[in-house]
Write a structure and sequence with these properties.
This protein is of the alpha+beta class. The chain has 2 domains: about 1-60; about 70-295, Clam (outer membrane lipoprotein receptor (LolB), chain A), CATH 2.50.20. It contains 4 helices and 12 strands.
């Protein structure tokens, strides 16, 4: 697609140059009626304007448009995540669901250990839940129970499977198949750096500029890119708009906000990184289910 686009840009540029030269020649012929002094002055001015216009047109042809810049940033960010050897990070995911009769907000806080040849380990560190609307007391109780369920819980992902351990509920590990699309883990509306896997499906990418993002005690320069996701990648089958903050230094996606609407319900999911370290030593045993735990398959 990009080579074709550049060819079209070049063709437009050559057409503009041809038209500009025609206009310039016409002006020169018209100005030949003037006196010698006037003719020399005018011809010099016209030649200067022609050269400046040619430079502007060609520079505009060579300068990548915002769509190209957005696509390039998304591609480099996806490559940066894929090329990670090891990563340790503190992150959060927010889920905000607002309907006419109710408003639900949940925040999952967790740490990530990622090793390219071993898998991804998620350890849940905290859970916050707020609810306004009908059956508010009951829903707050449900949120409290979910928070207790996640105490000491961890999730281990490898390829097409993941294992979820919730010691507050049961002394066994549940094995699931990893889902496709935005939300990979069944019953858990969380996501992290794997947002980069969806960049290949970005539609209508837009470069929104730069922004300084606070990550822990550091302020990081980021590029902000917006794009759309097709309905097939959303669990509620509604199209979504994505806004992602990509580090200028290492191209990692450090924040992402996904907004969508299904019928009369507004849905917002947010991922944010509060601290991260790359190329750290991670014990291989962190990426194995302990042998003394029973595994129950749920697929």
């Amino acid at each position: 697609m990009l080579p074709l686009f550049l060819k079209l840009r070049k063709r437009d540029c050559f057409r503009d140059i041809e038209n500009l030269l025609k206009v310039t020649i016409r002006l020169i012929l018209e100005f030949l009626k003037f006196s010698h002094v006037k003719r020399l002055t005018v011809l010099t001015a016209v030649a200067g304007l022609a050269i400046a216009a040619l430079l502007i047109i060609c520079m505009s042809m060579l300068a990548p448009p915002h769509e190209d810049k957005a696509e390039a940033l998304l591609a480099s960010s996806k490559d940066a995540v894929k090329s990670l050897h090891t990563l340790r990070a503190e992150v959060y995911t927010l889920k905000d669901v607002k309907a006419p009769a109710a408003h639900e907000r949940a925040k999952y806080v967790f740490s990530i250990e990622l090793a390219s040849d071993l898998g991804t380990k998620i350890s849940f560190n905290g859970f916050e839940f707020e609810y306004e609307g009908e059956n508010e007391e009951k829903m707050e109780m449900v949120g409290g129970e979910l928070g207790k369920t996640l105490e000491g819980a961890w999730l281990l992902e490898k390829d097409t499977y993941y294992w979820l351990y919730t010691p507050a509920v049961a002394e066994h590990v549940v094995e699931y198949r990893t889902g496709s699309g935005l939300l990979k883990y069944e019953f858990l509306p969380i996501f992290h750096f794997d947002i980069a896997e969806l960049f290949s499906f970005a539609e209508n990418p837009r470069y929104l500029g730069t922004e300084r993002l606070r990550v822990g005690n550091d302020t990081i320069e980021t590029h902000v890119v917006g794009f759309d996701l097709p309905p097939s990648l959303m669990p509620w089958r509604a199209a979504a708009t994505v806004k992602v903050w990509i580090s200028d230094a290492d191209k990692l996606p450090l924040r992402a906000i996904i907004t969508s609407r299904y019928e009369n319900t507004n849905i917002t999911l947010e991922f944010g990184c509060t601290h991260y370290e790359k190329d750290v030593e991670l014990p291989p045993e962190h990426f194995e289910v302990p042998e003394d735990l029973l595994i129950v398959k749920r697929y």
